[in-house]
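User: I'm writing a short report section on ligand binding and want a predicted complex to refer to. Could you take this sequence and zinc ion and write out the structure as tokens? A short remark afterwards would be nice.
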Amino acid sequence: MSLIGLAVGPASATSSHHPSGHQSHQQPSHHHPEPKTVPVRLLSINDFHGNLEAPTGSSGRITDETGTQVDAGGAAYLATHLKQMRNKNSVVVAAGDLIGASPLISAAYHDEPTVALLDKLGLATSAVGNHEFDEGIDELNRIMKGGCHPVDGCSPAGTWKGSSFDYLAANVLKEKNDDYALAPYYVKKINGVKVGFIGLVTQTTPTIVTAAGIKGLKFTEEVAAANKVSRLLARQGVKAQVVLMHEGDQVAPNQSPDACPNTPGAGTRIAQGLDAQVDLVISGHSHQAYICKTKDPAGRDRYFTQGSSFGRVITQIDFQVDKKTDDIVRSSVVADNHVVTRTVTPDPEITAFVQTWKDRVSVVANKPIGSITADIGRGSTNGGESALGDLIADAQLEATKEGGNAEIALMNPGGVRADLTFAQSGSEGNGVVTYGEAFTVQPFNNLMQAVTLTGAQLDALLEQQWTAAATRVLQPSATLTYTADLTQAFGSRVSGIKVNGVPVTDTQQIRVAANNFLVGGGDGFSVFTQGTDLWSGPLDIDALVTYMGAHSPIAPPVTNRLTVIQ
Ligand SMILES: [Zn+2]
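Assistant: Sure. The structure tokens for the complex follow:
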């Protein structure tokens, strides 16, 4: 019997509340009564996105419980904090997007370094995230089961051994036979009690992952899918149930990581809809930190949490499992978001591990690819148009002219992931742009494609930039100009479309370049899927690298392609 169990088990408190009901369960024991409950501690992360090195800029800061902005994140710090928080009752879990959209140090090796790290941190299981599908289900299976990459071969670390944890999804099915594409649940025995983990990923995954990544898969409604598995687990006697879901809500900027107030969205909908048998909902995807309580369908409080992103927060959840009912004592659940500060000593083993990969990737990362004359930012300066977005669109057009016959290019703003900064901290000198920096801007390894749209379709596509749900202004190449009147109703805002200065007619055929995410209808740009004569070209990162090599030094493009009336 564990001393910890005796120390923190609320056996006496419970029996004092229900003196008669619970006394009878008490075993007449030799020295002391068996505790009726056993403690369990969950330590959870989400949306790590391969951040082996401490993330920089706003990605590496977070508001702590006192309202102060502090530096946070980085694998070696995460390891130290986890070590301090771990006990013999603990299990490390995650809520998806651990890999994908990663920095070069991880992405250059298909995220094997990150998965190796997560194994070192003792991750037991994780919900699958949308980004785990970035390279398709076959690649995800390789990541779990091992083997070298079919195209790029083995990493410098040798043959990939696979992960010791499995990704879970109760709502991802194979299209051909409705079988689960991944394990729907995982049961872990902790301290003699069984805790079941059910995985979920946002059902919107097909609209936010490239079409090739989710080929052959079906993403079903989350609540129904999880409840089906919950009932199955209950029948098997697994009553302590935790849902790990890669879906979440938004909170106000700079609120405490332990606060709740959120904008109820898909996360709250699922958190409230899950069967009452589910005791906890650990979420992800929106990169927010919150500790919320919602009601389950039986009217009991149920925690709904998320731990920011990039390893900046660990969510610690402590609870008791009743040994008689095998269920979580709901009133015993305590959840806390713990900021992964950098004021602790970084874990030496993980520091060395990260340094090894840093050295391996440095040859690639530090290679200069061009130069800039000033900062080129992704911040919108003209109704949604940004200098860096313009530059990327120009690079994409140049990469798709030959072969793809592209006349214009359009880039989704969400795919421009960082600024290019003039001042350098490294040795390469001011204005120099390295491959590593360019990769940070374009980390998705999307393919450039081109399709034919009519003038009318291009108009309809541009109208899709403004909807009641969102504004997403596509970054245009210099060859496309138009006027957007934001005072007009959705669907009638775009006019004066010109390609190379010539007004576009409705029936004119235009070759439009974009990455495969957009061409597949991503971000709600469904008109792209009406395109014909699909052509596929180079990777988006290669388009940017080639363009910078050919045109440096590059001045920030003037953001005047879009004329905005507001
Ligand atoms: Zn996500």
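A remark for your report: Confidence is low (pLDDT under 50) at residues 1-29. The two ends are 70 Å apart (CA to CA).
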